[in-house]
């Protein structure tokens, strides 16, 4: 039997027209349409089977599936229905009943999505096609043999549960492909209420996951979100007069007016519904992954193992969770540790933990150094930041740390080139910036500016000019120094400078580069602005960072560097010396001591400071760095000076409970040559696909050669670089090691055995030697 051309039009069986935006009325109207369809379908079914013998009439049933099965009929919804018959009913009889059933409905203009199957075919189809199985999970009898339909649905449901472990990964892959193709409801410029990630398709899929009995979801929250999206779709159908799930920008004002919203409020409302639904879906799939991966447990088997990774923070069941000690209510740093660990490890932050953290005190303002360091670690973590930021934003923690975020949350951009809402774009800019941190001297400033570069949007006025002071205030609250906060504010204010001049001015005109140089002031600031510009553009869309635009901007930066002299000097002219705020320590050993060195350990933030004094000699820094590494210490920063034949260094390490005896033992073994650092630390392969940068700052010191290494922070990094310098026959007069998130920026003041700077050719050879290391 052929299928006639579908006739589209409003469903004629139910109260139509512009109705109240109240959820109860819209929900009632959906049920009313379904009830009216039920009545009409029963009437047609009765006429179709009435000529048959009684026994033959009992061989059929009309089954509503999908949205119609749930009695959720929007004005232009398809009517998903299946004519089911017993296997022994003759095919000619089946065809005659189907023809007498469908044609009156087509004549009515009903948008039928119909099928005819035997009971055996229904079971086979549900077994072979997960989409058919999902539809059958919501099946209900409209007419005919209801007990047979109930039995069929029960059998499909039992098979779904029995085979869920094999079938759900297929459904998951299909969902990923759909979202990759359509995008997210909360982020897309054109919102597809059904197919977008966080849309109606995800909501109904979660019902199927719950039906598997492998996972559960908050039913009340899920159903409330789903009903709210259905309300918007109902009004969208009524406003457009046609079947559509796409809420385009030009339709938003009319749909908003019909629902009693201001247009921008409706946009935010729908995006928030999508965001919350997507969060439920992501959490549910993640928990399902854990269930599918775990081995069946006995009744006495323990729960997920708790692996502590930082004070108050642990990994359990593939999530970052709180241990309760220290109590987050008493230690505000626990929240920052949890976020940093989750982002850095690429693990989700437990929703329950995020909710708990949103209710505890935040760090005192301005934030202490350790709080700022942990925040920077999260912002420089790369892609792992995105889901963690989303989790803490939903929980309300972002509002505690950054109240200014409210103005940009879920706000679409007026520019069609943007693929994300402003808030998501800002986080994506952080992700891009994390890949550029070796291009700049201050990764912490870069990633903070990337997060805040659009913070002025949502306010009146030019968002760059408004955002600069806002970003500076935020940076001061977060514990940045006034100078660093001013730099962040200036970067935010200037973040459109390079693309504007590069695309609207002649970059070959010397005045263009001179204009940039005058406004940025120095090379370090220029490098930060160039990296921020690239981060902003690449987070926007490929069109915003085309080869043409990238070439113009990079060309302008090169010319501006030339104007600035490109001295390649470090920003701090006093960088060589011991930090002014730290008194120069006295050596604490003499030749009469049992050990030819001394060690002092004291608490520092959530780690420790280790001070080591020993006789100065070539290779000492490498030996001490290696000893700390094999003692299990993660080095965060270090300072070293030589005075009167003694070398004194202070090392900041992550461990809050350093064992002095163990550390002394390791140092003794290393200095005595009893322990092979090569065997214990060997770097192996490079830690990152991005090559390390080794810079020689020729103009930074007249008495030493300044070598800077920017690389992925890892165990043994300082030891490997310092050893390479020592093996080349040079001494390290002072060292300044800093860590910004995952990025190490280590500066070494290198001298020849007679205490002078290296000749330029030798410095170049040394730099190549360090570049050859697997850093």
TrEMBL record:
Q: Does the keyword Cell inner membrane apply?
A: no
Task: Return the annotated region ranges for Disordered.
Answer: 1-25
Which EC number(s) does UniProt give?
A: 2.7.7.59, 3.1.4.-
| Catalyzed reactions per annotation | [protein-PII]-uridylyl-L-tyrosine + H2O = [protein-PII]-L-tyrosine + UMP + H(+); [protein-PII]-L-tyrosine + UTP = [protein-PII]-uridylyl-L-tyrosine + diphosphate
Transmembrane intervals? none
| Record function comment | Modifies, by uridylylation and deuridylylation, the PII regulatory proteins (GlnB and homologs), in response to the nitrogen status of the cell that GlnD senses through the glutamine level. Under low glutamine levels, catalyzes the conversion of the PII proteins and UTP to PII-UMP and PPi, while under higher glutamine levels, GlnD hydrolyzes PII-UMP to PII and UMP (deuridylylation). Thus, controls uridylylation state and activity of the PII proteins, and plays an important role in the regulation of nitrogen metabolism.
Name this polypeptide is given: Bifunctional uridylyltransferase/uridylyl-removing enzyme
Species of origin:
Mumia zhuanghuii
């Amino acid at each position: 039997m052929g299928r006639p051309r579908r006739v589209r039009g409003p469903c004629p069986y139910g109260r139509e027209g512009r109705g109240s935006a109240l959820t109860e009325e819209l929900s009632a109207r959906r049920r009313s349409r379904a009830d009216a369809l039920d009545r009409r379908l029963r009437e047609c079914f009765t006429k179709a089977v009435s000529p048959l013998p009684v026994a033959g009439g009992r061989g059929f049933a009309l089954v509503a599936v999908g949205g119609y099965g749930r009695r959720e009929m929007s004005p232009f919804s398809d009517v998903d229905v299946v004519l089911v018959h017993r296997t022994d009913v003759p095919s000619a009889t089946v065809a005659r009943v189907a023809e007498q059933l469908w044609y009156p409905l087509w004549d009515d203009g009903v948008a039928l999505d119909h099928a005819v199957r035997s009971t055996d075919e229904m079971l086979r189809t549900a077994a072979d096609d997960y989409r058919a199985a999902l539809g059958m999970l919501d099946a209900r009898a409209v007419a005919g043999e209801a007990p047979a339909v109930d039995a069929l649905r029960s059998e499909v449901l039992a098979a779904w549960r029995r085979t869920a472990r094999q079938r759900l990964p297929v459904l998951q892959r299909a969902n990923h492909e759909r979202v990759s193709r359509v995008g997210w409801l909360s982020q897309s410029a054109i919102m597809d209420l059904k197919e977008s990630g966080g849309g109606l398709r995800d909501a109904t899929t979660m019902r199927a996951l719950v039906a598997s009995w492998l996972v559960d979801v908050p039913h009340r929250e899920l159903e409330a979100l789903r009903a709210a999206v259905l309300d918007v779709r109902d009004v969208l159908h009524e406003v457009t007069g046609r079947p559509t799930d796409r809420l385009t920008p030009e339709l938003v004002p009319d749909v908003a007016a019909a629902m009693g919203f201001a247009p921008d409020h409706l946009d935010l409302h729908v995006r928030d519904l999508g965001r919350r639904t997507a969060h439920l879906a992501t959490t549910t799939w993640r928990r399902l992954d854990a269930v599918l991966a775990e081995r069946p447990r006995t009744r006495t088997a323990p729960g997920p193992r708790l692996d502590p990774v930082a004070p108050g923070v642990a990994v359990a069941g593939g999530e970052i969770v709180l241990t309760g000690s220290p109590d987050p209510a008493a230690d505000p740093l626990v929240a920052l540790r949890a976020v940093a660990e989750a982002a850095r490890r690429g693990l989700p932050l437990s929703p329950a933990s995020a909710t708990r953290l949103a209710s505890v005190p935040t760090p005192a303002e301005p934030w202490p150094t350790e709080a700022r360091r942990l925040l920077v670690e999260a912002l420089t973590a790369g892609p792992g930041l995105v889901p963690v930021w989303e989790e803490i934003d939903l929980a309300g923690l972002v509002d505690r740390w950054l109240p200014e975020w409210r103005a940009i949350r879920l706000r679409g951009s007026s520019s069609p080139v943007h693929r994300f809402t402003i808030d998501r774009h800002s986080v994506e800019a952080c992700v891009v910036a994390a890949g550029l941190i070796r291009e700049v001297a201050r990764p912490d400033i870069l990633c903070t500016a990337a997060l805040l570069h659009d913070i002025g949007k949502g306010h009146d006025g030019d968002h760059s000019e408004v955002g600069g002071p806002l970003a500076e205030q935020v940076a001061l609250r977060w514990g940045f120094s006034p100078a660093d906060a001013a730099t962040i504010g200036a970067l935010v204010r200037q973040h459109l400078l390079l693309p504007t001049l590069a695309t609207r001015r002649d970059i070959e005109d010397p005045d263009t580069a001179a204009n940039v140089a005058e406004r940025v002031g120095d090379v370090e600031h220029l490098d930060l602005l160039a990296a921020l510009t690239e981060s902003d553009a690449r987070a926007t869309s490929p069109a915003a960072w085309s080869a043409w635009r990238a070439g113009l901007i990079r060309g302008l930066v090169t010319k501006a560097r030339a104007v600035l002299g490109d001295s390649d000097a470090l920003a701090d002219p006093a960088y060589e010396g011991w930090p002014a705020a730290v008194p120069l320590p006295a050596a604490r050993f003499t030749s009469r001591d049992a050990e030819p060195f001394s060690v002092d350990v004291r608490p520092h933030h959530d780690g420790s400071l280790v001070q080591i004094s020993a006789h100065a000699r070539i290779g000492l820094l490498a030996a001490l760095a290696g000893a700390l590494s094999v003692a299990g210490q993660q080095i965060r920063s270090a300072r070293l000076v030589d005075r009167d034949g003694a070398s004194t260094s202070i090392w900041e390490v992550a461990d809050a409970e350093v064992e002095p005896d163990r550390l002394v033992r390791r140092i003794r073994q290393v200095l005595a040559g009893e322990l092979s650092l090569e065997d214990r630390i060997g770097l192996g392969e490079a830690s990152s696909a991005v090559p390390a940068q080794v810079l020689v700052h020729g103009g930074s010191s007249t008495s030493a050669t300044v070598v800077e290494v920017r690389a992925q922070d890892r165990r043994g990094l300082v030891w490997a670089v310092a050893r390479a310098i020592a093996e080349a026959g040079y001494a390290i007069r002072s060292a300044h090691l800093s860590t910004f998130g995952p990025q190490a920026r280590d500066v070494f003041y290198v001298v020849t055995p007679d205490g002078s700077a290296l000749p330029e050719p030798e410095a170049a050879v040394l730099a190549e030697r360090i570049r050859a290391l697997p850093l």
